[in-house]
Amino acid sequence: MAEAMLETDSISYNGGIVACGKCGHWQRALALFSEMSEVQLDPSAICYSSVINACEPGEQWQQALSFLGETRWRKLDVNVHAYGIVACMCEQSGQRKQALSSLRALSEIVTE
After folding, report:
1. What is the model's pLDDT at position 84?
2. How far is CA 50 from the centre of its chain?
3. What pLDDT does 96 receive?
4. Checking CA distances to 26, which of 7, 34, 56, 57 falls within 20 to 30 Å?
5. Rounded to 5 degrees, what are φ and ψ at 25?
6. What's the rounded Cα separation, in Å, for the pair 28 and 88?
7. What is the rounded radius of gyration, in angstroms, for the C-alpha atoms of the chain?
8. Does the pLDDT of residue 1 top 50, yes or no?
9. Which residues, 6+ apart, have CB-to-CB distance to 104 below 8 Å?
10. Rounded mean pLDDT of 29-44?
11. What does the pLDDT look like over 59-102, one tens digit per residue?
12. Using an 8 Å Cβ cutoff, are 54 and 20 in contact?
């Protein structure tokens, strides 16, 4: 019997990132996200939104802020919810400057 080859794509990775995030396994979600570049897949805006969501249970505001910056650099439109999560995580961690910065970035996008 021939062995079936499964093709992975950004949708498959995104499913794994979402599942890990919902279960609180943020470290695994981040590992899956970084694995995408190893297999030469460019993460979509949806993947970025998912990995930002996955950062929340682990209170990984710095990582989430970094991902948000990458989306702006790559000119990807992540959903508004991702900006809100980053702002809330920064605020809860006492990082008001970063929280305001992410909200300003959101307002720039909304007004464009």
Report:
1. 85
2. 5
3. 80
4. 7
5. -95, 65
6. 22
7. 15
8. no
9. none
10. 93
11. 898 999 899 889 888 988 888 888 888 888 888 888 788 777 77
12. yes
All residues at 6 or more sequence positions from 21 whose CB lies less than 8 Å from its CB, including other chains: 29, 50, 51, 53, 54, 56, 57
What phi and psi, each to the nearest 5 degrees, are found at residue 79?
-75, 160
- Contacts of 89-98 spanning 24+ positions with Cβ under 8 A: 89/55, 89/56, 89/59, 89/60, 89/61, 89/64, 90/61, 90/65, 92/59, 92/61, 93/59, 93/61, 95/61, 98/61, 98/65
* Distance from C-alpha of 40 to C-alpha of 73, rounded to nearest angstrom: 18
What six digits make up the tokens of 92? 């809860």
Checking if the pLDDT of 5 tops 70, the result is no
pTM of the model: 0.83
Round to whole Å and give the CA distance between 107 and 103. 6
What integer best gives the mean pLDDT of the chain? 85
Nearest to 86 by CA among 107, 109, 106, 108: 106
